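Trying the structure run again after the queue cleared.
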Amino acid sequence: MSQVKITREMLAKQLSKEFGLAYSTAYKKIDNLLNIWSHKLLNSDLSISSLGSFKINHKKSRLGRNPKTKEEYEIQSRKVVTFKKSKKLDL
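Done. Tokens:
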């Protein structure tokens, strides 16, 4: 399964082409949208209709091991964003 990275630049080019917007305007709109989503996600879960929901999960610290050297080390606790797709999203 290959992943295709979509960048802000790619989205801005597509928006400017489809809607006749200036590239700089489209880029600013995308940047503002992503900022709104990220601030919303910091405060609570983010749900987007027909797309899915984003949630922050807290992972505890744990003991990890290098499989080659068998050296053990602590993996720090961290926050991760998880995504659950909507039933309407057909992939």
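Residues 1-43 form one domain. Worth checking whether this holds up in the mutant runs.
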